[in-house]
Amino acid sequence: MFLQNTKFKCENRYLSIFFYIYLLNTHLHIISFDIPYPANYGGVIDVFHKVRCLHAEGVKVILHCFEYGNRKASPELEKLCEHVYYYKRNTSFINQLSALPFNVKSRKSSELKQRLLQDNYPILFEVLHTCYLLNDSELKNRIKLFRHSNIEHDYFLELAKAETSLLKKWYLKLEAFKLKRFEKQITNASNILSVSETDLTYFKNTYPQTPSIYLPSFHPYDDVIIKQGKGNYILYHGNLSISKNYIAANWLIDYVFSKISHPVIIAGLNPPQHLIDKIKLYPHITLKQNCTEQEMQALIEDAQIHCLYTHQTTGLKLKLVSVLFSGRYVLANSNMLTGTNLRKACQLCDTPATYISSIEKLFNQSFSINDIETRKQATQSMLNSTKTKTLLRLIEFTK
Questions:
Q1: CA–CA separation, 201 vs 78, rounded Å?
Q2: Distance between CA atoms of 95 and 113, rounded to whole angstroms?
Q3: pLDDT of residue 352
Q4: Is 0.70 surpassed by the pTM of this model?
Q5: pLDDT tens sequence across 101-116
Q6: pLDDT tens for residues 173-186?
Q7: Domains of the chain, each with CATH number or no CATH
Q8: Which residues pair with 191 in a beta bridge?
Q9: pLDDT in tens, 32-48
Q10: Cα(223)–Cα(381) distance, rounded to whole angstroms?
Q11: Which of 134, 229, 265, 326 places its Cα 20 to 30 Å from the Cα of 164?
Q12: What integer pLDDT is reported at residue 25 of this predicted model?
């Protein structure tokens, strides 16, 4: 028995050494729709922390980023990646006239294609916007993973419903039509990586010939880091330049926050003027604009209650993940929780009355060690370590 156990231990040791050597030689191309640092809004949070977790496991990431807006080349990314390449998006008007979605056509790059052809490493396409090369005949035999964050045509239609400008509404509806037609290109992927169980069902039913896997979004938290005790304000946060988020903030102000007297903070990027003006009407509501990652994290950790609301059911809401791993009490409506198994981690609130009654019940209640343990159990499926292992299996022995 001793000899058998010794042999088993030796074999395990050699397997571990072999796997370590394998990882040192594992490369992965990741094509990102944007520069994923700073990781301060939904989609790039998933990309950045995926890169971070893969790097920690020894994977050599070759990151390709499309550059636009105010986001610039990042030394932080270069610390985590074998190589980082940047490509300018071509946002000229002529690309609006293409039969392809503008968000796809503007990310066409011959330079990117040439770099992908220099080796035979697996390729991860981050969201449909990066998938111009997914059906390229020269990449036909490559391992190609497609990662989605929303069912894009549904997402753009929801944005169109919320848009007040007729021109923007028309553009969003047209883009939704093009995205729906283009979406069938994902049948050229080896696997579809779905962020929610609802979306997983959609992809399995719509593209049954392409294997779909449930892979929730990566995030900054490798463990639950909630503070005991209590805070003294209620928080709503999000990218306030996006219509779904400022609509949610407006709804919460009109039907919940304006009906209570407890301090409220609304925090996020680039809020529209109409939201700024509305918040000024209420002395107990404070607006925090364009916080740094550190400032936003401190706001999340110190809040007593997190109020989350959305009228959309698409994708996985990363603000939900953030508050579940690092915030105290969480109130959320059914749409926010659709496609997740996180209902036990939140107080479900589908009416203004349930939000208000939950706030009154919880505002002076201390968050205990038992509450933290309960949250840890409820968020097991969202751990980064589990998702990293899934990705490693998908790229295994495809160097």
A1: 36
A2: 19
A3: 98
A4: yes
A5: 999 999 999 999 999 9
A6: 999 999 999 999 99
A7: 2-220+383-394 (3.40.50.2000), 234-382 (3.40.50.2000)
A8: 145
A9: 999 999 988 878 999 99
A10: 12
A11: 265
A12: 61
Tokens standing for 302? 């110190």
